[in-house]
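During the no-cost extension, the postdoctoral fellow (Dr. R.K.) reprocessed legacy sequence entries with the updated structure-token encoder. One reprocessed record is reproduced below for audit purposes.
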Amino acid sequence: MKQNDQAGIIYTAFSYFLWGILPIYWKWLNHVSAYEILANRIFWSFWFMLLFLFVSKRWKDLSLYLKTSLTKKKQLFALLLASLLISTNWFIYIWAVNSNQMVEASLGYYINPLVSVLLGVFILKESLSKAQMVSFGLAAIGVLILTISYGDFPWIAIGLAFSFGLYGLAKKLIQVESSIGLTLETLTIAPVSLLYLGYMYNEGSMSLFHVSLGTDLLLMGAGAVTAIPLLFFSKGAQQIPLYMVGFLQYIAPTLTLILGIWVYNETFSFTHLISFMFIWLALTIFTASRVQYARKRRREARLSA
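Re-encoded structure tokens follow.
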């Protein structure tokens, strides 16, 4: 294995590890409403990213993108859409963690790769392989088992999967490096978060600067814990094949699932196990098909070279 590949795997795996244990951070803030946590996460992420761009001397990249791309209506719409979708995704996740539904949240990120492909089929008119069709069928059975057994549709899992999947589609339209993208997305929605914080302050219900120093530091630190995994991911994912990223992405929901069951004592019944087994089987087939396709493309590339 090349040195770049090893470094890429380490950076990418570490980013998914950080995302996987992120629920611990939100649990430390479970005395704060999910709305206020989200507003602080957006606001402080924006300032953290500005600081990062300043330290890394990336101002020119941001300025160039603003000059060349944001005069186009399509780019502006995609940026606004991406900002709304990632904010929705963040809110659902924070709310799920602090309402003791981490098991269902992990389900959402397990099925996210399948949802992303499904969106590609319907929106981008991409083709669907037989292995992918089987994967969708198995995953659908898993979701159906949960729905019928508990009489309640797993809207948290589906909401997380579709909001992040649609966010990925919007990012394709923006086509910008991840650190610049996060800066622009948080810039777009930061005024709304600031207005909400101002409203809470006037109502006397704001936790920031009104509860404890620890709460203040955690709320302001939400920007760093949002941006740091993304920066590791962008550095690592550039150095390894896409199928390897596909393997590593299951680290995050697996850690979240483990935390939910064994640390925070959430219910994981036999029905959950059966449902997750269908979904894990679907992901095994899906990932194996992606690896096989990637190897085929590499062989074809070598033969044509």
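The chain has one domain: 3-304. The chain has a mean pLDDT of 90. The remaining legacy entries will be reprocessed before the final report is submitted.
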